[in-house]
Design goal:
This protein has helices at residues 2-33, 36-39, 41-44, 47-65, 76-101, 108-138. By secondary structure, the protein is mainly alpha-helical.
């Protein structure tokens, strides 16, 4: 029992790490696509602080909503619904903290493009990860064999 729990924790860590890589990549991609006139001077000159805030808020949101990919029976619609809930919750908390931290004005076009693309990529990543995990388990990975000795019958 202990080994499977450790395997689940490892899977959660890999999933969250992949989520963070996707989120940071998309944020930096959209940051370079949009012009300084669209984003604003204060936004452009505080990108490291924004990235730290983005990552911390995502870790908190993911901790509260969780990851369900490692469970034995998970339907694809549950995965997409959980990803949508994480993205919406993250967007609300991030935009609120962004406004309170006074990093400049929020470009609606930037954040709509970022969060829409992030939701699509996150859902695709998690569905692909779930398919790979099912394939791994079907081939015999993550299984245990038990031999019982000493039966009187």
């Amino acid at each position: 029992m202990k080994q499977s729990l450790q395997f689940n924790k490892l899977l959660k860590g890999v999933i969250i790490l992949g989520d963070l890589v996707i989120m940071n990549f998309l944020f930096l991609l959209f940051y370079h696509v949009f012009s300084e006139a669209t984003l604003g001077w204060a936004f452009v000159h505080s990108v490291p602080q924004i990235l730290i805030l983005l990552n911390l808020v995502y870790l908190v949101c993911n901790y509260s909503n969780g990851v369900i990919l490692y469970q034995r029976i998970v339907r694809p619609d549950h995965i997409v619904r959980k990803a949508a809930r994480n993205v919406v919750f993250h967007a609300c908390v991030f935009v609120t903290l962004f406004s309170l931290a006074d990093f400049g004005s929020i470009s609606l076009r930037f954040f709509l493009a970022f969060y829409t693309t992030f939701f699509v990529c996150l859902s695709s990543y998690r569905l692909l990860f779930r398919a790979l995990l099912k394939w791994y388990r079907r081939r015999g990975g993550n299984s245990r064999t038990v031999v019982l000795l000493g039966s009187d019958e």
